[in-house]
């Protein structure tokens, strides 16, 4: 997987998902306009962090989200209206977006990931490698019986990597559905082995499983990440770059006819 600098014109079609990787660099954490672009609720959230490093990462991740949403919607970052669903999933109201834009985000450690699509739900999760215990996840009601069986057959580093992979895959799925931790986690089974991730929801049948596809993302050593998307989609991966003062404007394009359709340019600028 290659994280490319974005092109001069970013085109998002109905059959596509854009995933952005951002390094939460300390050099930008106190840059001009970061806090100012946030909503009052986001600023309150930032003030709730005990450690400055955690607060700075939060402010950066939300500021980048607003800049990306502004890019796709043709608005100033501070003017983007972000609402939250009943179980915590953020979204842009339809009457505000007028485009069917869906998005999701996750940040962990020194990185953040953002996923954008048109007309289909997406979820993304990023986890930095930390020591995990099978019994801990089991007692938290996170694992299905099949997942426990597969994980218990592994040991050492293989188990740690599988636990992190399982965690990221299931989190991405429940974020995509909008259920979050209110989902019946023990009834949801994700594949544990590396490669070809999949999800099965017991009592809903294989037809329901085919509604969702999972894709592992290679972000950096020591991290696990996964994208969950409604249906099949072509995935483009972009690297977030802080705009230079003299950089030319970038055009965001929202279009609906697929990869080969003529785009309808909504806005130019950053």
In short:
With 270 residues, this protein is an alpha+beta fold. It has seven helices and 14 strands.
Describe this structure in words.
With 270 residues, the chain is of the alpha+beta class. The chain has two domains: 9-120, 4'-phosphopantetheinyl transferase domain (Ribosomal Protein L22, Chain A), CATH 3.90.470; 126-229, Alpha-Beta Complex (Ribosomal Protein L22, Chain A). The protein is 28% helix and 27% strand. It contains seven helices and 14 strands. It has a four-stranded mixed beta sheet, with helices on one face. A three-stranded mixed beta sheet has the order 1-13-14. It has a three-stranded antiparallel beta sheet with strand order 7-11-10, with helices on one face. Helix 1 runs antiparallel to helix 2. The longest helix is centred in the first third of the chain and has 22 residues, at 52-73. Residues 260-270 have low confidence and may be disordered.
Model regions low in confidence, pLDDT < 50 over at least 5 residues: 260-270
Strand tally is 14
What would the average pLDDT be, to the nearest integer? 84
Query: How far is it from the N-terminal to the C-terminal residue, by CA?
Result: 26 Å
Order of helices and strands: EEHHEEHEEEHHHEEHEEEEE
* Main pleated sheet: 4 strands, mixed
Number of domains: 2
Q: Over the alpha carbons, how many angstroms does the gyration radius reach?
A: 19 Å
CATH topology of the largest domain, anyone? Ribosomal Protein L22, Chain A
CATH architecture of the largest domain: Alpha-Beta Complex
Sheet/helix structural class: alpha+beta
> Any idea of the CATH class of the largest domain?
Alpha Beta
Oligomer: single chain
Percent of residues in helical segments? Answer: 25-40%
Tertiary shape? globular
Strand adjacency order, main sheet: 5-6-2-12
CATH superfamily of the largest domain: 4'-phosphopantetheinyl transferase domain
Query: So how many helices?
Result: 7
Please indicate the percent range of residues in DSSP E strands (runs of 2 or more).
25-35%
